[in-house]
Structures are given as C-alpha cells and as structure tokens.
Amino acid sequence: MAEAPTLPLSCTASSAALLQKAATLAKKLQIPCPPGPAAPPQLVYTERGLELRLQLGGPDTVGTSVLHIDFIGGRSGYRHARNCTINQPLARAVGIRPGVRPTVFDATAGMGADAFVLACLGCRVTMNERSPVVGALLADAIDRALQDPDIAPIFRDLIRLVIGDAQAALRTMSDPPDTIYIDPMYPHGGTSALNSKEMRIIRAIVGDDVDGGELLAQALLTAAQRVVVKRPKGAPLLGERPPSHQVLMKNSRFDVYLRRHL
Fold it and tell me: What angle do CA 73, 79, 80 make, to 5 degrees?
C-alpha cells in the first residue's frame, strides 16, 4: 500500500475540460476533488500539466509555492540532459563507460532528473517512487514527454515508472538490475541538487526518509554489480556502511558499493 500524504490534500483542475482527469486522480489517491479552487495544499491540473501547490511557512505567508515536473524544458529538460557526458560524476558512479550502459533501478526517483540523464546517456532505467503524490507528478510529466517527438523515444524505450515501496520491489525481482541508485531525502540543512523550495515542498508532502539504511541493505543483496548512494558533502554514511569508493563533487558525493567487494 502506497504511503498517504502527510498533509491534507485535494485535487482539482483549472478548467472544466481537465476536471475529469482531476477526478480520476483524486479517486486513485483517495483524496477530495472539489469542483472549484480550494486552498493549498492541492494537486491542480493546468494547461501545462499537473502541479502540486503548497503554501510554505505560517498562515500569514503570502503566495503559493508550485512543484511541477517537466522533462521537455526547464532546468531538468531535454536540452540539459542531452548535453551530459559519460565523464560526469553520476555516469561514472553508476558504471557507465565506453560501450557499457548498465541497467539502473532508481529506488528513490523523486523529480526524476537523475534517471532522465541516465536514460539520455543510453541506460535502461526503472524509476521507483513510493509517494503516490510525487508519482502522479512523474506520470503526468512522462505522458507529456511522450507527446514530444524529440524525447518520446527515450521514455518509450528506456524509462519505466513504478509506484510503490522499493524494498518490496527489490525483494521480488527475478532479473536484478546492474546498478541500484539511491538518493534519499537529505537531512534537514543538507545541500541538495533540488533547490530549497522544491525540497521543502516534497518534504512537507512525503516526510523524511527514515528507512534509508534498510533500503541500502536490501539493495546490496539485490544489485547485480553495484549500489550507488547520493549523499550531501559531510553527511554520515547511509546505514554506517563504508563504500568501496566515492565519487566526490563540490556539494555532494556518490558512495559506490561494488558487489565484488562485499
């Protein structure tokens, strides 16, 4: 069973034409679907796609923060992803090298940015997201990406989205992936690839990752070749397990666990 949102949530649409999509999603997530605008937090279907709207801060805070996933444009869009190379830290950490493209299970897909980059580099990637709310945002972004001729083949041929508990999925795998990638919710105050507002929105809806060590333990039992954990610079090792080696960056690092070293 997918985890319920940690905040009261409803779903609606910005137009009558989109209201049926909102009603279908609300039924799936078992949340209300009011016929008109309501106070955030709220999932809203707009002309650009599904948005999560949330008022951060206290009751006197002015304005609403919006979380929207877009694989076509923006900071995580196709133009950015296709300019990535196999020499970047993420690619080296998961095991990409000339002529080698590992299969990857992204156990904590989140906004999907890293999984998208890996798919653009030629890896077959399974995005696993246990939050039904974030999963809905990802599914909507993928649906829109499939309508874009430049990017549709990547999502059709190389990316699969799974909503549910990653540990349960790993325990029942008959064909383990080469690499399992884990990017757990960073501790409060940690530096993230997400900007602070995106992180605050996601944390408010899904809460903190409290079982990262357990997920790592299961991943180490399942992965065919390696497990990669993304951590902030200076953060403790996930599950206090020392990695085989690390790939260091300015504000974060990848802890790499090779199966042959276990």
Answer: 95
